[in-house]
Amino acid sequence: MFYREAGDFKTSYKSDQETFPLKLDKVLFWIAMAIAAFVVPFFLNEYWEKAIFLPFFIYALAAIGLNILTGYCGQVSLGTGGFMAVGAYASFKLMTGFPALDMFVVIMIAGLITAGVGVLFGLPSLRIKGFYLAVATLASQFFLVWLFNKWEWTYNYSATGQINSPQRDFLGIVVTGPYTKPWATYLFCLGFLFLFAWIARNLVRGRIGRSWMAIRDMDIAAEIIGVNPLMAKMSAFAISSFFVGVAGALYFAVWLGAAEPTEAFSIDQSFDVLFMIIIGGLGSILGSLIGAAFIVLLPVLFKNVFVGILGIPTDIAEFSQIILVGALIVFFLIKEPHGIVAYWRTLKGKLRLWPFPY
Amino acid sequence: MFFLLDPFFYEIVISGLLAGVMYALVALGFVLIFKASGIFNFAQGVLALFAALTLVGFQTGQIPFAHLLSVFGFHVSHWGSGFPTIIALLFSLLVMIGLAWLIVQIVLKPLVNQEGIILFMATIGLAYVLEGVGDLMWGANVKELNVGLPEGPSEFILDTTDMFIDKLEISAAVVAIILVTVLTLFSAYTKMGRALRAVADDHQAALSVGISLETIWWIVWSVSGIVALVAGVMWGAKSGVQFSLSLIALKALPVLMLGGFTSIPGAIIGGLIIGLGEKLFEFYIGPMIGGATENWFAYMLALIFLLFRPQGLFGEKIIERV
């Protein structure tokens, strides 16, 4: 009744191919964005910033990156944690080596460096496929984390082996270091997520995105119809690693402020991001966002409801959370391989016809 | 050839080979399931952890879910002094078989005919569930596992050759050899083994001659549950039963890639190569680049190897058709 497409006429190919084909969708999206950008920052406190919004934005960015590789190009990667570490350490070296550099530039260069490393570890994908490749990407995870533990130059020979993000700013606004304001980091990360979600959305429906999907659906057939597998796979690895590297840089520099490779970039990170895209929806940008929100909010929910309100011991809450996440993975793979986003689509379809479905 | 004179060299070679046997034990469970159902079972390591936890639980007479029950006001922890080792082993075996049935019914049956990578991701989910359930049932603290295997350095070898070899690793090697022999005989000479090989060869054809896929899968998962139990016992006796036990799966993966996913001898030989290479690399190259190379050396070796031979040493050639 309220959500309908009657009167929404498409008169050109361009308007038919829009991200939000319905006018109502578009309006709602921009209202939500306006609230996120102009209203939320005024009510933001430290807890909401550090525990909910920043992790959501950063993981969403990493999830979009992995979704490009796994969901769109079909190459399962378990090395996300390692690539996030590359982004983080690259940003650290840039921040300490070139103090005058703007934070935006730092993070973009960190992304580029990660893209290079990603291509290097993506090379085996030309020869090996499926779970052979998934296991091979674990090599990057273990090797990179080891490297950042042992190579003193990467952490500036600090005695603890930890990296700490110094104070740097973006256009004069402090976004890293101990004296940041919640609204500044919030808007900084939101800006990155918005920008990259927009880029990703336009990449995956363009020529390059279609070549990824062709490779995913059947690589030999794609090759025969003229898709260059080398270019498609390498570009997927590069762009995906770029996204993940940016997420890693934000993760360390803006959110955590300090990191140590074994803890912050463990293999659990890789699995968490993989779970986000399975639960949210493989091959969907919106799915990456939903999945990231889900995996980030679940522990917060468990902590507040089970431990805080019901008084269940922390360890039991933690175990039940692990069980729940695992069970959800299996559930979604069986019942809804397209993830939560498929329910969203069904809901929208139903809403359009409501209240007269026939 | 200066290193051949080094007395440490032989000690490293032997301990590397014995460590390789331990990796092969875990890899074996992977291969069994992969051959019969095409599922790459990521949960194998957690299966070993779960088996070891269950065994310790039975041995010490823990009540399952004791911690959870205490939330609801039942404060219990033990119901006596526990079972003797052999009975505890038998009970754990039954638990693993029951677990296999549950996995087949709940996870695998609805996913029949899905792509391999989907099943792989499902087993990652399964690994999380099992890990949580195991911790919830038996508690997450580090437990000691003692099944009466000899431990400590072998005096005989120490006296005769001056080498420091753990008895436990020797018994692990013996157990592994027995296990592989039994499995090979089982798959070559029993009716069930033949059915297993038929299913591995061609699901459709096996179905058409009246082999029940469900039963076969149940058997395969039970067998690999039993292999997981053996691996869990060996690793648990070596380094205590705790969460990190499940990480041995990550050690077994490069072994598999090297040996090929479909070959039992491949798992053994891959394990030996990885165990040996890892120890030698750590001893000779490790100090030059900062040490602790064991975490990634196996992966890098397997990765480079795969570039030249994508199906591993003994794996079946991957043929693709459009």
What would you note in describing this structure?
The complex is a heterodimer of chains A (358) and B (322). With 358 residues, chain A is mainly alpha-helical. Chain A has a domain of 227 residues. Helix content of chain A is 72%, strand content 2%. Chain A has 15 helices and 4 strands. Chain A has a two-stranded antiparallel ribbon. In chain A, strands 2-3 form a two-stranded antiparallel sheet. In chain A, helix 2 packs antiparallel against helix 7, helix 4 crosses helix 5 and helix 8 packs across helix 10. The mean pLDDT of chain A is 85. With 322 residues, chain B is mainly alpha-helical. Chain B has one domain: Orthogonal Bundle (ABC transporter involved in vitamin B12 uptake, BtuC). In chain B, helix 2 runs antiparallel to helix 4. Chain B starts with 6 loop residues before the first helix and ends in a 14-residue tail after the last helix. The model of chain B has no long low-confidence stretch (mean pLDDT 79).
Kindly list the characteristics that best describe this protein:
heterodimer; A: 358 residues; mainly alpha; two-stranded antiparallel ribbon; 15 helices; B: 322 residues; ABC transporter involved in vitamin B12 uptake, BtuC; 0% strand; globular
Q: What's the topology here?
A:
The complex is a heterodimer of chains A (358) and B (322).
Chain A: H1 13-16, H2 23-43, H3 46-72, H4 80-97, H5 103-122, H6 130-150, E1 163-164, E2 169-170, E3 173-174, H7 182-204, H8 207-217, H9 219-224, H10 229-256, E4 258-259, H11 261-264, H12 267-280, H13 285-309, H14 314-335, H15 340-353
Antiparallel strand pairs in A: 1-4, 2-3
Chain B: H1 7-37, H2 44-60, H3 66-71, H4 85-108, H5 116-138, H6 155-161, H7 167-189, H8 191-201, H9 203-208, H10 213-239, H11 248-259, H12 264-284, H13 286-289, H14 294-308
Helix pairs in contact in B: 1-7, 1-8, 1-10, 1-11, 1-12, 2-4, 2-5, 2-10, 4-10, 7-8, 7-10, 11-12, 11-14, 12-14
